Amino acid sequence: MFKMSDADSALRERLERTRREAEFSRKKLQHQHEEEIEEHETAKKVLDRKVCVVCHSVVVLLNQTSFTMLENYHKLDISLVKLKLEVKRCSS
Fold first, then answer.
1. 3-state SS string for the chain
2. What is d(CA 87, CA 2) in angstroms, rounded to the nearest whole number?
3. Each residue of 44-66: pLDDT tens digit?
4. Structure pTM?
5. How far apart are CA 86 and CA 92, in angstroms?
């Protein structure tokens, strides 16, 4: 039967310690990676919400602007009709 020497035993202990350290490092890196993914997803959701708010604000502003332009057009049209009537009345 094979008997381990002190050198073999020390080498085996170093190998086992190195394996445990590598496993610990792998788990730590995996955990950090998962945290970074969560942070990115959270940041993306926040940005998506901000984009939605801005888009909604733009739509509201465009609707208000369109309504104001339409209202001004109608006022101008009414003024033009009144002016034409005035010109007709003065011409007669």
1. CCCCCHHHHHHHHHHHHHHHHHHHHHHHHHHHHHHHHHHHHHHHHHHHHHHHHHHHHHHHHHHHHHHHHHHHHHHHHHHHHHHHHHHHHHHC
2. 123
3. 999 999 999 999 998 888 888 88
4. 0.54
5. 10
